[in-house]
Amino acid sequence: MASLWAGRFKKEVDSKVNDFNSSIAFDARMYRHDIMGSIAHATMLGETGIIDRKESEMIIQGLEAILDDIENGVLVFDPNAEDIHMFIEAELTKRLGDTGKRLHTARSRNDQVALDIRLYLRDEVQTIETLIKDLIAALCRISEQHLDTIMPGYTHLQRAQPITFAHHLMAYAQMFLRDIGRLRDCNKRMDCMPLGSGALAATTYPIDRHRVGELLHFSAVTENSLDGVSDRDFCIELASAVATLMMHLSRFSEEIILWSSWEFKFIELDDAYSTGSSIMPQKKNPDIAELVRGKTGRVIGDLVTLLSMMKSLPLAYNKDMQEDKEAIFDAVDTVKLCLSTFTPMLETMRVLKENMRAAAAKGFINATDCADYLVKKGLPFRDAYKITGTLVALCIDENKTLETLPLESYQKICPVFAEDLFDAIALETCVNGRTAYGGPSSESVKVQIANMRKALTE
After folding, report:
1. Which of 160, 261, 374, 389 has the highest count of CB atoms within 10 angstroms of its CB?
2. Longest dimension (CA), the chain
3. Cβ(43)–Cβ(214) below 8 Å
4. Which element (helix H / strand E) includes 158?
5. How far apart are CA 84 and CA 73, in angstroms?
């Protein structure tokens, strides 16, 4: 395929340079968005009289036919084409002759690329948001089933205070809801139409940029032509939002991995979302969670790639910016793959309630409630704290828990203790007594679930 920018050059580009320069291997996925942008541009050119309206209509029909042929498998991408933009324009010219050559009037490949990537990523953001909503909905459903499933809450990976499995899951739901917020914020700044910026200095043709923006459903057009072609902030923002989302998935994966180990045994993953060992027949490995955890580093790397690529670029467009696509496409592909696998893994896991309850009974995670009991009896908190610490040490020496230590032992250390102590430090009391907004009581978590479902509909 002859280069569409030929004329200035006296000889062909070296084949190795052509291969090095080519991007169609990864930007071909934007074919639909490139055609959408070209149709809007051709429509505007015809409406403004920059080209003949009949030729505008021929170009639009030609582009629609190319789109149909690509999607029906009739037209195959030419690996020798420099990029998807030149491939489509060359195909249009082959079909329409000089009329096809008029499509590129009043635009540059620089603003064309800037448009296509925004159009493509705008759609991808919606897909990712839908996948996150599916995950949050699954967390809400699972949480409703485990409002009374008591488990230890941890700090420093040490048993700290009793909570419920529902409360724990809804913490992740909050993280993922914030991820949706970050994606939407990113989308606001992405939703700005750059076509008409030209190579860097706009054009002398009387174009109507707002009309193109209207046709492509953008909320605004870019205000500065230099910025319009050289801005990739939206790629960086999206990569940052996706990296944060992957970090949340990785934290969750780490807990899934711990919980499914024999040391915890809080859950058992479904066979369909586990793997075995080639040598150890007893093994059931949480490979899905481990892969999500591992792929998080990959997406963080994509973000670093984009930041490093842009950090030293003078205005306006530079060929370095071709590297934006592989990085952001990889980040988007990876997070979609992880979300679509992670959600059914959660939905099919078996929760081992008894093991969670047994773990919560150990580790003195009701010690704070024991101290609070004394405070309610009139003791200062620091005195109650010290007394409870002494009781924990006694329990360790006698291999007992706060629930199994006799009342006489309590009363030897502090005579304020009475029979009502054991009800006060029961795990169910400890959990459901925490009725503060956002706490782990079943009623509080019901509110969290209801609020989450409301947020997903807004």
Report:
1. 374
2. 101
3. no
4. strand 158-164
5. 16
∠ CA 232-238-243, nearest 5°, is 130
277 is catalytic: yes
Q: What is the pLDDT of residue 9?
A: 54
235's tokens: 């790629």
Q: Is 261 left (phi over 0), alpha (psi -120 to 50) or beta?
A: beta
In sequence order, what are the beta bridge partners of 164? Answer: 150
Tens digits of residue pLDDT in 351-397: 999 999 999 988 888 999 999 999 999 999 999 999 999 999 999 99
The tokens 């029909």 sit on which residue? 61
Q: Tokens at residue 454, please?
A: 């409301």
Which stretch of DSSP H or E encloses residue 160? strand 158-164
Tokens for 261, please give them.
């180990």
Task: Give the number of other CB atoms < 10 A from CB of residue 97.
Answer: 10
Q: One-letter amino acid identity for 454?
A: K
Q: Indicate the residue type of 184.
A: R
What Rg value do the Cα atoms of the chain yield, rounded? 31
Residue 274: per-residue pLDDT? 84
What is the pTM (predicted TM-score) of this model?
Answer: 0.91
Contacts of 214 (CB under 8 A, 6+ apart): none
**Active-site pick, 156, 197, 278, 340:** 156
| Rounded CA separation 159/171 (Å) | 17
Task: Give which of 163, 198, 308, 305 is closest to 242, Cα–Cα.
Answer: 305
User: Side chain identity at 434, as an amino acid letter?
Assistant: R
Is the C-alpha dihedral spanning 318, 319, 325, 327 positive or negative?
Answer: negative
Q: Active-site residue among 277, 340, 442, 444?
A: 277
Q: Give the chain's length.
A: 458
Q: Which of the residue ranges 7-16, 83-92, 361-370 has the most confident prediction, judged by mean pLDDT?
A: 83-92
Written as six digits, the tokens of 191 are 């939703």
Q: What residues have CB less than 8 Å from 23, skipping those under 6 apart?
A: 82, 83, 84, 322, 325
User: Residue ranges of the alpha helices (H) in 73-164?
Assistant: 84-96, 98-101, 109-145
Asked if residue 117 lies in contact with residue 329, where contact means CB atoms within 8 angstroms, the answer is no
Q: How many CB atoms lie within 10 A of CB 295?
A: 19
Our answer to whether residue 253 is catalytic in this structure is no
Q: How far apart are CA 224 and CA 221, in angstroms?
A: 9
